[in-house]
Design a protein that fits this description.
2 copies of one chain form a homodimer. The first copy, chain A, is about 50% helix and about 5% strand. By secondary structure, chain A is mainly α. Chain B binds a DNA duplex (30 and 30 nucleotides) through α3.
Chain lengths: ~150, ~150
DNA sequence: CATACTGTATTACGACAATAATACAGTGGT
DNA sequence: ACCACTGTATTATTGTCGTAATACAGTATG
């Protein structure tokens, strides 16, 4: 799994764990790897994994036996509901994004069909998102005059 | 424009400004609102706007006249290239996301067609992403034993 | 020329994410 | 009983994001 710096790691882990569950990668009833094992695999701190798993618990996709481990829920409906929710979120976000740059549904559908195979199969061929880099050498900088200026933030 | 807490604000502003340019909302050659004005409109600190605009400059979509203001590039090819890049990123990301939860291209296309109109037109009907909330009452917590444990982070 | 506007530069502070390093408690196998 | 393993809890440190509050420099207009 890929982790980037654009969002809190624990939030990315929540998404990844949910994905593994709704995709069947972690089937219903299966015992999850331990907190420490997951942390090792993912290259993050166990604290971060724990935080993410607590949120997955909260969403009802996993539960913990306190000392014997953590397990995927056996409630199949909960899993499929989560899958539908994730799908809907993803689709809506995509629709908003592409319509926001002036694309039509037909354009979006065509582009999707054209890139599907390659994007899904060949990670190297993907167009990765702009990696969230600091704007060149500049610092931060901003305002000036004291009172009537653009400092109307919260 | 909507700002959430899932990513640095300045990064969201970069995306938004690029979107306005490639969508034609800010046409080629047009003078951008001032840093302070944008900060006021968006409800953020001028520093944050400045940081975002510096990045948009770096990407070649805007340039600054230092004292007279900031302008959208007149290089039409740069704009359309940026639009293509954004579209490709968005489509690839979508393809990976939906295939990651086990959807086929046909399913994705159908779902997209079904949700297109409503997601684009009616913000209230959208399925919003999980709002990145702290996992209930729990703290953070994690590991234990000292040496041979999962603390193999960087 | 003076004033208002533009972008740019600094420094400081509060909040939080991620890490680090322990510690505790309960279960299961030997 | 012992020991390895599980989840959970605490405390401290570091870095960065967002904000705040100024300050400086150049242009344009009256």
């Amino acid at each position: 799994m890929e982790i980037d710096e654009s969002r809190p790691i624990w939030a990315q882990l929540v998404d990844e764990f949910c994905r593994r569950i709704v995709s069947g990668e972690w089937p219903s009833g299966r015992k999850l790897p331990s907190v420490r094992e997951l942390a090792l695999d993912l290259g993050v701190n166990p604290n971060t994994v724990q935080k993410a798993l607590a949120e997955v618990d909260r969403r009802g996709l996993t539960s913990t036996e306190r000392t014997s481990g953590r397990f995927v829920t056996t409630d199949a409906e909960a899993v499929s509901a989560a899958r539908r929710a994730i799908a809907a979120e993803t689709v809506d976000g995509f629709a908003i994004a592409v319509s926001g740059i002036g694309m039509s549904l037909a354009e979006a559908t065509d582009l999707l069909a054209g890139r599907w195979r390659i994007a899904v199969a060949d990670p190297a061929a993907r167009v990765d998102p702009e990696p969230h880099r600091e704007p060149s050498s500049r610092t931060t900088n901003a305002a000036d005059s004291p009172a009537q200026d653009g400092r109307t933030n919260q």
